[in-house]
Give the backbone structure.
Amino acid sequence: MKRSRKIRLVLIGGISAAAVSGCGPAGRPPPPLSADCVYTNNSFVPGVGYYHAPFRAWYRLPYNHYDPHTQRYFYGGEWWATACESITNLSPPLAQLAQQAEAQRTDIARGGFGSTSRSSWISS
């Protein structure tokens, strides 16, 4: 009986790890940002920013970032006098925001027709 409980815990842990990993295996190019995946608080995407799970969007600063000069916390796109104490630490982003974030990211090599800085000159 104990053996089956351990197996269940391992399986549940494996499923949780896959859900938090951003829907893709390690060692491959990062998967596209999608409303079908869940992301944890402060997941960072180059060119986009930090994911704030309770607000289901990305922002330029980390979740609950504290500025000692103003003595305020940043979350959900605004500055507040107190830290956000939400129990939500992972969530799927809103579909439209996931599409916008995917278009802004800088960690993916995008295909194209080449560089416009190269030129050819033919002498006659």
User: Anything to note?
Assistant: The longest strand covers residues 49-52. DSSP finds two helices and eight strands in the chain.
